Amino acid sequence: MNTLYPLKFTPIFKDKIWGGQKIKTVLGMDYGNLPNCGEVWVISGYKDNVSLVQNGFLEGNDLNDLISVYMGDLVGDSVYESFGDEFPLLIKYIDAKDWLSIQVHPDDELAAERNTGRGKTEMWYILQADEDAQLISGFKKEITPEEYQKLLEEKKLPEVLNYEKVEAGDVFFMPAGRIHATGPGVLLAEIQQSSDTTYRIYDWDRIDAAGMTRELHIEEAMDAINFEVAPHYKTRYAAKKNRTATLVQCPQFTTNLLEFDEPIHKSFDELDSFVIYMGVEGKSELTWEEGNLEIKPGEAILVPNIIEDITLKSEGTAKLLEVYLAK
After folding, report:
1. CA 172 and chain centroid, separation
2. How far is CA 71 from CA 44, 75, 190, 219, 324, in A?
3. Tens of pLDDT, residues 221-255
4. Which residues does 195 contact at the CB level (< 8 Å), separation at least 6?
């Protein structure tokens, strides 16, 4: 068996009613003739959208098949014990030209109850935002489920939601149960559980090209919503150049930010997990014992668990997100 190496995958592009052009114009990715490319899935083990390797001797193999062959060497022994041949995360870049639906995701328990796979806890890192761009995260004041239903019927729900103005570098953690929506002019990186279960609550009375409205999931969402008001919704973190800054630590994933203009050496000998690097700003290069790979904004590299030492280098200043599963 040949030695595992850091993997890049063929992007999976998704046309969305709310999508724009920034995946092409800002990230430089060619998605062909899609009119509104809203998402690019760069690492996925989800159902019919499993990523195919783009580099090296494993080119063309799908990610979940590789897990079944390499098991803990690829994803980590503890990860393999928990998730088997299914890759546990879905890694995306999202471009919103219009509001996404106001939505919520179930947690693992509710998703299992409804036989819809896993729950969906996620986080967003803002790559670029137009002036005055904003998003919705949670409620701005406490309301009861009864008040919520009345506001929804009267199409006044947006009035009680928490709006956040956003700019590049902002981070938002979206635990399952938190009502949310991305607004126009926002380009972001998303790290989430491997799930595509979304309960649409309100879609801004939007009509598609065929004159149809999109399906809503009012009843399903009721059991999923967490009505608690958080003290703050934007994640606070302290970034320091050439150091690792922790953004999010949760049972589903850990995400760090690396901003660097000097080589950074990383040793993973005590980590029982794969590691993902996502490009968010500038060009960088990942080097391991047997080779190197470039990382541009909009790309992601999966470093197998068996690789214990890497070095990251940059042209000028670069920023990467580092993602893994901690025990």
Report:
1. 11
2. 16, 6, 25, 39, 16
3. 999 999 999 999 999 999 999 999 999 999 999 99
4. 46, 90, 105, 111, 116, 117, 118, 119, 120
Environment class of residue 54 by beta-carbon count within 10 Å: exposed (0-12), middle (13-18) or buried (19+)?
A: middle
**Position of tokens 């098949």?**
65
C-alpha 235/C-alpha 85 separation (Å) is 32
Q: Which domains does the chain have, with CATH numbers?
A: 12-224 (2.60.120.10), 243-324 (2.60.120.10)
Which residues are annotated as catalytic?
200
Which amino acid appears at position 23 of this protein?
A: I
Number of helical H runs and strand E runs in the chain:
7, 22
CB count in 10 Å sphere of residue 154: 9
Q: What is the pTM of this model?
A: 0.96
- Cα(171)–Cα(80) distance, integer angstroms: 29
Nearest by Cα to 295 from 310, 268, 277: 277
Q: What is the pLDDT of residues 153-189, one digit of tens each?
A: 999 999 999 999 999 999 999 999 999 999 999 999 9
H helices of 114-165, in order, are 145-153
From 188, 184, 190, 192, select the one nearest 169 (Cα to Cα).
188
